[in-house]
Design goal:
The protein is α/β, with parallel strands linked by helices and 335 residues long. The chain contains 11 helices and 10 strands. It is globular and about 55 Å long.
Length: 335
């Protein structure tokens, strides 16, 4: 999954191109920045989350239009249903950068669907078709699909394990889980895209077709992306800091309180566009991104390479993200 890094823009310039009314509405909704009162929080099982990463990777790279993709779709939809979610599949034919039509499916699971007070949790479940960050001398490796253990499967795994807890213990609000497809199908750096906004195709489609009404539209969204690598650097990116500053700030405070301040650095993390950009700008749901990226280091070393496999997944990172997520959801921060 390549992210668009706006290296030529400063924060003020980035903010100026966003929808000011959307941002104003989001900030108004966040004005009451409550103290997070701790309640009975279920235990996040990092070994179970790791197993979910492995199960996805056992299908192979989940590239749209592939057999592995189709098989994993059945597994993820079935698992979310088994865990108590009301599952629907949002299918769409989405055009890639070179005109390829991707048979895509966003997987949506609603927990406590009768409740209007809702939040929504996101990850992408597809894999990158090419390893365009491999060593340029390894021409055969460049053309291979990425397994996507961290870039895709890790966020999904954390949400699946979280879903098990949502079903077992009432969080006190409605929760939707949306797994985006076709996030990682953008043009490699050696090709020119023929399609505008050729990344994050599934989230663009969902954001234009959420199906929410004014009464049940989620107040808050959280995106998990690349949350399983060793020694992560989770910073608050510019889009999150602009559209959901208080929500993100509370989440990072929870992380610090749990002793994960070395992972969750409460600093500006750079200017990128991920799925949350479209959720914010199209769907109008204030959403922040938990993603392993900072401006000094960039993305993790295995990003978009053949090394993004299960061997490079750290259970402790999955556990840290999962524990912070559950603590946040099961306290009044999210309510």
């Amino acid at each position: 999954m390549r992210k668009f890094i706006f290296v030529a823009l400063v924060s003020v310039g980035l903010a100026s191109c966003f929808d000011s009314q959307t941002a104003a509405n989001a900030n108004d909704a966040e004005k009451k920045n409550k103290t997070c009162n701790i309640v009975n929080v279920p235990v996040f099982n990092q070994d179970s989350a790791f197993d979910y990463v492995k199960k996805q990777c056992d299908f192979g790279p989940r590239v749209p239009n592939s057999a592995s993709h189709e098989k994993c779709l059945g597994f993820l939809a079935g698992e979310l249903s088994r865990l108590g979610g009301s599952v629907s599949l949002q299918k769409a034919d989405l055009k890639g950068y070179d005109g390829t039509i991707y048979k895509s499916t966003n997987i949506i699971a609603a927990f406590y669907p009768e409740r209007n007070n809702r939040i929504v949790l996101f990850a992408h479940w597809d894999s990158r078709p090419v390893s365009d960050q491999e060593d340029g001398t390894k021409k055969t490796a460049l053309q291979k699909p990425v397994m996507g253990a961290n870039d895709g499967a890790s966020g999904v795994a954390v949400l699946l394990e979280a879903a098990r807890n949502f079903a077992a213990q009432d969080p006190g609000l409605g929760i939707d889980i949306v797994l985006f497809d076709a996030e990682d199908c953008g043009a490699p750096h050696w090709e020119q895209s023929k399609v505008e906004n050729d990344w994050c195709l599934g989230s663009q489609f969902w954001s234009n077709n959420t199906g929410y009404s004014l009464s049940n539209k989620p107040r808050l969204g959280i995106l998990l992306d690349m949350v399983g690598g060793p020694n992560p650097s989770f910073c608050i990116d510019a889009v999150s800091g602009y559209y959901a500053p208080n929500y993100a700030g509370d989440f990072w405070k929870v992380a610090s309180g749990l002793g994960f301040g070395s992972f969750f650095k409460n600093v500006a993390g750079g200017q990128i566009v991920d799925d949350h950009y479209y959720v914010n700008t199209i769907a109008g749901i204030p959403t922040f991104d938990v993603i392993d990226f900072d401006t000094q280091r960039g993305f993790p070393e295995m990003w978009h390479t053949q090394h993004d496999d299960v061997e490079h997944i750290d259970r402790n990172t999955l556990g840290a993200v999962g524990r912070v997520l559950l603590r946040y959801v099961y306290t009044d921060c999210a309510k």
